[in-house]
Amino acid sequence: MKPTSIDAFHEARGSADRAICDVLRSIIDACLTDAESKIWHGHPVWFLNGNPIVGYSKLKDCMRLMFWSGADFDEPALKPGSGKFKDASIRYTDASEVDTEELERWLGKARNIQWDYKNIYKRKGLLERLV
After folding, report:
1. Which domains does the chain have, with CATH numbers?
2. Contacts from 89-92 at CB under 8 Å and sequence distance 24+?
3. How many CB atoms lie within 10 A of CB 24?
4. In a 3-state reduction of DSSP, which class is residue 91?
5. pTM as predicted
6. Mean pLDDT per 10-residue segment, the chain (131 residues)
7. What are phi and psi of 117, to 5 degrees?
């Protein structure tokens, strides 16, 4: 059963993954105070003006933090996704790996570098830069 809230998503994780999720959520919430957060496609995601900005998901052996526009952040620790989109991510296996300063910097870039994923279906898969 898919979680219906971010709290439920966290509760469904094992202790190590839950610790990662708790750290990520606290930093994201503190930096993106005006963002809407919810479960989207089964994972916690934060939105600015309806546009997905950042979220995390459980992979087989780690937690993955993804920025929808992260490929344009010029951050070596963020690995670009495969395909035509602008996403980039980092994987964590322990909460101690989350670098607060680094994550805060990325969240600042996420606010200022955005591609319009909100309207991607209307444009038949074409992305347009917002900010």
Report:
1. 6-112 (3.90.1150.200)
2. 89/64, 89/65, 90/64, 90/65, 91/59, 91/62, 91/63, 91/64, 91/65, 92/20, 92/62, 92/63, 92/64, 92/65
3. 21
4. strand
5. 0.91
6. 93 97 98 97 95 96 96 96 88 98 97 80 71 65
7. -80, -25
